[in-house]
Amino acid sequence: MIKTDILIIGAGPTGLFAVFEAGLLQLKCHLIDALPQAGGQCSEIYPKKPIYDIPGFPEVLAGDLVDNLMEQIKPFQPGFTLGERAETIEKLDDGSFIVTTNKGTKHHAPVVAIAGGLGSFEPRKPLLENLEKYEDNGVAYIIKEPEVYRDKKVLIAGGGDSALDWSIFLADVAKEVTLVHRRNEFRGALDSVEKVQQLKNEGKINLITPAEVVALKGENRLEKVTVKDTSTSEETDVEVDDFIPLFGLSPKLGPISNWGLEIEKNAIKVDNTYDYQTNIPGIYAIGDVNTYPGKLKLILCGFHEATLMCQSAYQKIHPDKKYVMKYTTVGGVTGFDGSKKEAPKAVVKAID
Predict the structure, then answer these.
(1) Which residues pair with 350 in a beta bridge?
(2) Where do the domains of the chain lie, and which CATH numbers do they carry?
(3) Of 311, 343, 269, 316, whose CA–CA distance to 95 is shortest?
(4) Which string of DSSP letters, residue by residue, matches 324-347?
(5) Matching Pfam families, A to Z (predicted)?
(6) At 64, is the secondary structure helix, strand, or coil?
(7) How many CA atoms, within 13 angstroms, populate the side-chain half-sphere of residue 348?
(8) pLDDT mean over 205-234
(9) Phi and psi at residue 304, in whole multiples of 5°?
(10) Would the CA dihedral through 20, 25, 26, 30 be positive or negative?
(11) Sign of CA dihedral 334, 4, 323, 296
């Protein structure tokens, strides 16, 4: 039985940052993740994708962000159960929980924080004939290593942030980048839309809107895609080496959906007026996995939610102690293994 103060389900950026905030309060954390490594989607799906909305970093690669978070939490020595999925949860008479994974590993904690991101997921695929024939043979749904597209002709389909960001990034890598979207308007950040338009004007991106890919062609490997102008129904064949449809992910909560939590549109409802607690006392949900009025699915919002969750968790774990958080600093603290070391700590003012 693995025992900890806060059991975090999901080792993505939000879950990792929760370890830091809990560590400032001398709360021990253990994380469960179905993936074989920490980092969530940032490590598994797009480690080389640039992220622009992390405070203090004009631009940071997703994989580098994970590396930095791992370095930041190192002093607090979190435990990890990786490659296992949280399967069941049992609430004990004292209000604590036992969470068991699909491989039978049991974890005991007074507080559970679900930071599962989008949950288990699979890419949304376009409805195209012979699509499977070209998968891993010219068609990919995730960009893990941009260098694969060095000096190649790449066509990206989509209208969200991922399609825009990767079109911008690959403009300096690929021989030719074509972006196809079914509407003239994009759903992504305005700055990214303006950047794509600028690159189009400079001849670095071919922008085709409103349009959609309607067919794939090639003997043994993808050679051409047929693009249909949806305003005129005119079809044109475009020579490509690679086709990357970026239509988002289809998320599933998996076993967590059977835990008695209040679910709305495949996300866990939480109380955002205070601490992001679910309808079950002692279980919190932070990051992309939760929902509440005004919710924004941004990493920096997950960091904020993790911070407030840890404050509430401290009071739940130590109901006899009251304090006011003042600021954080660096000083000598006792590690969870009993060693003395330099590490961040919270400076608090006790209340009698």
Answers:
(1) 323
(2) 2-121+249-350 (3.50.50.60), 125-245 (3.50.50.60)
(3) 316
(4) EEEEEEEEEEE-TTS-EEEEEEEE
(5) Pyr_redox_2
(6) helix
(7) 16
(8) 96
(9) -60, -45
(10) negative
(11) positive
Query: Residue 250 and residue 254: Cα distance in Å, rounded?
Result: 12
How does DSSP classify residue 205?
A: -
Q: 126: Cβ–Cβ under 8 A, 6 or more apart, which residues?
A: 157, 213, 245, 247
Q: Which of 324, 289, 131 has the alpha carbon at shortest distance from 214?
A: 131
Per the annotation, binding residues for FAD are 14, 33, 41, 46, 86, 121, 288, 329
Beta strands in 171-297 (DSSP E): 176-180, 206-208, 211-217, 224-229, 235-239, 242-245, 249-252, 263-264, 267-269, 283-285, 290-291
| Per-residue pLDDT tens over the stretch 23-82 | 999 999 999 998 878 888 787 667 778 888 899 999 999 889 999 999 999 999 999 999
Question: Closest Cα to residue 12, out of 161, 110, 119, 85?
Answer: 119
As a whole number of angstroms, the distance between CA 159 and CA 183 comes to 8
In the structure encoding, which two tokens stand for residue 216, read together? 């794939």
